[in-house]
Amino acid sequence: MKLAVCIIHNRDKSRIIDELVKAGFKSTIIGSTGGFLREGNTTFLIGVQDSEIANLKQVISVNCQSREEILNVAPFETNPTAAFAPSAVKVPVGGAVLFLLPVEEFERF
After folding, report:
1. What is the pLDDT of residues 36-46, one digit of tens each?
2. How many alpha carbons lie under 13 Å from residue 68 in its C-beta half-sphere?
3. Rounded to whole angstroms, how far apart are CA atoms 48 and 26?
């Protein structure tokens, strides 16, 4: 058995919840925030049997694709005399990050 920790963008949350339920996966959902863009994410904790890992990966990959957005970012210069000139940068958002952790014991009460 594995504990799947899956982090996705909030825009994909509703779709992936529905698809996980349809595929028979139970999950716990935790709100989280990304460190770089500081946008909302959702972290799923999913207990999964080893035989179901491929199915879980399929559900996640089909429903959580990354996309590019253009953001205006300020330079990292902290000098107050420097001119403030934000620049547009393409950054990938969305998609999913999946960690699979071994579980020694599982009990439901």
Report:
1. 656 778 999 99
2. 5
3. 9
Whole-angstrom distance, CA of residue 80 vs CA of residue 10: 35
pLDDT digits (tens, 9 = 90+) for 78-105: 566 555 566 677 766 668 899 999 999 9
Q: Bridge partners of 30?
A: 43
Q: Half-sphere exposure of 32 toward its Cβ, with a 13 Å CA cutoff?
A: 18
Strands (E), 1-106: 2-9, 27-33, 40-48, 66-73, 87-94, 96-102
Ordered domains of the chain (ranges, CATH): 2-102 (3.30.70.120)
